[in-house]
UniProtKB/TrEMBL annotation:
Membrane topology field: Multi-pass membrane protein
Keywords: Membrane, Transmembrane, Transmembrane helix
InterPro entries: PaxB-like
Keyword Transmembrane: yes
Protein name per the record: Terpene cyclase ascF
Family per record: Belongs to the paxB family.
Length: 201
């Protein structure tokens, strides 16, 4: 997803290492953000990431760890994030019923609802990634994929992650308004998420 790219000759030599450092810094902040999600969930007995955002997040990381990413580093990071996602899923299953008092059916079935959402989101992410890679969308010279010049998987990752990020941001604000409390999140978490996203862009 970009780590194998061969830059054109006219691009200054400092561009790739600079992008790599920014990407790693953003990934580190996102890893910290995930750890804070889990910690805050256990501490506040709530959950921080809205249900469908968590389903999308889990699906994205699963599809990119297993299907899209080629680099062992990328696969390892996405797998690590999946482990943190399991901690967030635990928080939803354990404490979600307390956050859905206005909807008793969801409160009783929050785990099942989340599993169905994860299934739908995974199918959607996989279908889109498969379509993108099989049709070689974003094909450019210098973009090897699976041993040959192929689709722009970096663009695929950016666009699909951007949609998930926008939804996560909007849903998190809505969740805060509906709940009238900030259980499951804190300011350090928000700062890590914001600066991690900026760094990765």
């Amino acid at each position: 997803m970009g780590s194998n790219d061969i830059l054109p000759l006219h691009v200054p030599s400092h561009v790739k290492p600079t992008c790599y450092v920014l990407l790693q810094f953003g990934g580190l902040l996102w890893t910290l953000c995930y750890a804070l999600y889990v910690r805050e969930s256990l501490k506040s007995k709530s959950y921080g990431m809205p249900l469908f955002a968590l389903a999308q997040n889990f699906a994205w990381e699963l599809v990119y760890a297993v299907y899209v990413a080629e680099s062992p580093l990328e696969q390892s990071v996405f797998t690590l994030w999946l482990v943190f996602d399991l901690g967030m899923i635990y928080g939803v299953v354990k404490f979600g019923k307390y956050e859905w008092k206005q909807s008793p059916w969801i409160a009783r079935n929050v785990g099942v609802v989340l599993i169905v959402m994860i299934g739908v989101a995974t199918l959607g992410q996989w279908t889109f990634a498969k379509w993108w890679t099989e049709n070689e969308v974003g094909r450019k010279e210098g973009k090897p994929y699976r041993g040959r010049i192929g689709p722009g998987t970096n663009e695929l990752g950016v666009w699909t992650a951007a949609v998930a990020q926008v939804y996560l941001s909007a849903a998190s604000l809505c969740q805060l308004v509906v709940r009238q409390h900030s259980g499951g999140v804190n300011w350090t978490f928000w700062a890590c998420r914001m600066f991690g996203s900026i760094s990765e862009l």
